[in-house]
Amino acid sequence: MPAFALSQRGFEAPPAPRARRRPSAVDTALRVLTGLALVAVAVLLVVFEERVRIVEAGVASAWLSPLVPGGVRPYLNYFILEVEPGRTVAFMVTNECTIAFLTAPLLALSGVILAMKRVSWGRVLRALILSVVVIFLTNQVRLGVIALGSHALGFDVGYELTHRLIGSVLSIIGFSAAYLVFVVVIADLHLFRRQQTRRYARRQRA
Questions:
Q1: pLDDT tens sequence across 21-34
Q2: CA distance 97 to 114
Q3: For the segment 54-111, what is each residue's pLDDT rounded down to a tens digit?
Q4: Closest CA to 72 of 99, 140, 83
Q5: Is 144 within 8 Å of 138 (Cβ atoms)?
Q6: How far apart are CA 19 and CA 28, in angstroms?
Q7: Do residues 63 and 57 make contact, with C-beta atoms less than 8 angstroms apart?
Q8: Residue 94: strand, helix, or coil
Q9: In terms of Cα–Cα distance, which of 174, 76, 172, 92 is closest to 133?
Q10: Which of 28, 72, 162, 164 is an S-S bond match for 64, by CB 3.0 to 4.6 Å?
C-alpha cells in the first residue's frame, strides 16, 4: 500500500525512487580492460617478485641511511650496514618479507570487483591504493626496526628481538589493518558515521 505525506498543500506522494543507470558499453569495456590489467599486474608481481625485493631494499636503504652512523648501502635485495664496530651485516629482503605476495591478491581482487560493475571506480581505486600504501609502509617500518634494533642492541640480541618478536607483531597489525581498510572502503562501511548517527539519535530521544 502506498504511503502519502500530509502537508499544507494536501496529500503528497513520496518521490519515486530513482532508477539505476545502466552502465554504458564504453564504461563496461573500460572496467573489464582495467580489471584484466590489474589481474595481469598481480601475476607480474608474483613472477618478478625479486625485482620488487630489490626496490624495497633500495627504499629502506635510502631512508635508513641518515639514521645509521656510516650509512646504509643497497645491493640487489640486500641493505648493508655496520651493526657493531668492525661487524657489517647484509640484511636480505627475502620472498617471505616482500610485499609482492601481499599486494598481488588485492590487485587481482580489485580487478575482479571492478569488472563486475557493482562498485564504483572511485571506491575500488581508493581501497586498493590505501591498502597497498599501508602494506608498503608497514613492511618498511618492519625492516627499519630490524636494522635499527640490530644496530642499537647488537646483532645477536637486537636481530632476534626485532625480527622474531617486534617485527612479527608489526606485520600482523599492519597487514591486518591493510586488508581491513580494503574491505571497509570497498563495502562502503561508514563505521564512524554510524556511531555519530547513533549518538545524535540518543540525544534526540533524551
A1: 666 777 788 888 98
A2: 29
A3: 999 999 999 999 998 888 999 999 999 988 888 888 999 988 889 999 999 999 999 9
A4: 83
A5: no
A6: 18
A7: no
A8: coil
A9: 174
A10: 72
